[in-house]
């Protein structure tokens, strides 16, 4: 799996302090402490710029954001909501932050792309094309 953007450099990412604290606590649980997906997410969080929820730009993917992504290789449009693992329902577009595409989307801004291999090895190049709902931009700072 690759989460590198088209340029080959990791995209800059911004995470709210609330999401950072909740994710850090989740990743520190005994069940997840050594899980490969949790380790990959921790790597992403360690390079993130952390901001107060009220200082989050409205075009950044945060937890519980509803986003629209376009697969630049196939043209397919995907509408996803980024959620915690216990809230995931793939058939409803609710993608866990511990899924490879979930951890890759966290903190990206509209216009940024990631390369990702879907289950089965199919290559995707997902570009965030819009954010239909972001809790911080909607004033839901304490979700």
TrEMBL record:
<dbReference type="InterPro" id="IPR023459">
    <property type="entry name" value="Tscrpt_elong_fac_GreA/B_fam"/>
</dbReference>
<dbReference type="Pfam" id="PF14760">
    <property type="entry name" value="Rnk_N"/>
</dbReference>
<feature type="domain" description="Transcription elongation factor GreA/GreB C-terminal">
    <location>
        <begin position="57"/>
        <end position="133"/>
    </location>
</feature>
<dbReference type="InterPro" id="IPR029462">
    <property type="entry name" value="Rnk_N"/>
</dbReference>
<dbReference type="Pfam" id="PF01272">
    <property type="entry name" value="GreA_GreB"/>
</dbReference>
<protein>
    <submittedName>
        <fullName>Nucleoside diphosphate kinase regulator</fullName>
    </submittedName>
</protein>
<keyword id="KW-0418">Kinase</keyword>
<dbReference type="GO" id="GO:0032784">
    <property type="term" value="P:regulation of DNA-templated transcription elongation"/>
</dbReference>
<keyword id="KW-0808">Transferase</keyword>
<dbReference type="GO" id="GO:0006354">
    <property type="term" value="P:DNA-templated transcription elongation"/>
</dbReference>
<dbReference type="GO" id="GO:0070063">
    <property type="term" value="F:RNA polymerase binding"/>
</dbReference>
<feature type="domain" description="Regulator of nucleoside diphosphate kinase N-terminal">
    <location>
        <begin position="11"/>
        <end position="50"/>
    </location>
</feature>
<dbReference type="InterPro" id="IPR036953">
    <property type="entry name" value="GreA/GreB_C_sf"/>
</dbReference>
<dbReference type="InterPro" id="IPR001437">
    <property type="entry name" value="Tscrpt_elong_fac_GreA/B_C"/>
</dbReference>
<dbReference type="GO" id="GO:0016301">
    <property type="term" value="F:kinase activity"/>
</dbReference>
<dbReference type="GO" id="GO:0003677">
    <property type="term" value="F:DNA binding"/>
</dbReference>
